[in-house]
Amino acid sequence: MRIAIYDLDRTLTQRATFTPFLMFCARRTAPWRLLALPIWIVAMLGYRAGLYSRTALKRFGLRLMTGSASPDRLRSVGEAFASRFIANPGLMPKTMAELKQDRRAGARLVIATAAFEFYATAFAAALGFDAVIATQWDGDAIPGGNCYGASKKARVLAWLEGEGIPRDRASIRFASDSFADAPLLDWADEPIFVTSSASQARRARVRGWRVIDPLET
């Protein structure tokens, strides 16, 4: 079985999605929450300074910018957000060409992302993916933590097990723009690193990963 797994942010999409989603959701549900945007910026700086985890940051961001919006409401907003985001700023041309090849080859298409499932599923549906592995949200907390790094690999392995797919019977390619995804890239049969940076490309090639420039047409 051929399985093609893609990261979402900056792999399929031209920009990261979380902060744009927070702003989009605030405008749709409670515009006054946009006044809290400077607080969110300070919170991101605190994360970069190592004061707390990505999971804590993302939980804070959702509570700050979306309030008590239910998961169902977030999914509804997520559908509108994905449609708008795909149109502008858009998708990565070269990555989409890779995806088209995988679809033609009959691969099972999976998004594995740290983005929240309530909007990642909308991207997956719009782009014709078969499954989504993403960060969860129960309305108050993030069960299992952020789907990132080694945790993302663990969730992919759990998905394979749940689907009854033995690893030795699957040919797996994985595309990502992030060195945080090294556990999955090293594990995949065909690792694809997505970058326009010459220095990052050199680092990726040293590890034996194929490199694509996502903006190539």
How would you describe this protein?
This is HAD-IB family hydrolase. The chain crosses the membrane at residues 30-50, 109-129. Keywords: Hydrolase, Membrane, Transmembrane, Transmembrane helix. It comes from Aurantiacibacter rhizosphaerae. The protein is built from nine helices and six strands; from the N terminus they run βαααααβαβαβαβαβ. The longest helix has 17 residues, at 71-87. The chain is α/β, with parallel strands linked by helices and 217 residues long. Strands 3-2-1-4-5-6 form a six-stranded parallel β-sheet, sandwiched between helices. The chain is globular. β4, α8 (182-187) and β5 (190-194) form a beta-alpha-beta unit. It has helices spanning 18-29, 37-48, 54-66, 71-87, 93-104, 117-127, 150-162, 182-187, 198-206; strands at residues 2-6, 108-116, 131-135, 171-176, 190-194, 210-212.
What keywords describe this structure?
alpha/beta; Rossmann fold; 6 strands
CATH homologous superfamily annotation of the largest domain: HAD superfamily/HAD-like
> Can you tell me the overall shape?
globular
Strand order of the largest sheet: 3-2-1-4-5-6
What number is the mean pLDDT? 96
Chain oligomer state:
single chain
* H and E string: EHHHHHEHEHEHEHE
Helix run count? 9
Helix content: 40-55%
* CATH level-two architecture of the largest domain: 3-Layer(aba) Sandwich
Q: Structural class given helices, strands, pairing?
A: alpha/beta
Distance between the termini: 29 Å
Low-confidence stretches: none
Keywords: Hydrolase, Membrane, Transmembrane, Transmembrane helix
Protein name: HAD-IB family hydrolase
GO molecular function: hydrolase activity
InterPro entries: HAD-like_sf (IPR036412), HAD_sf (IPR023214)
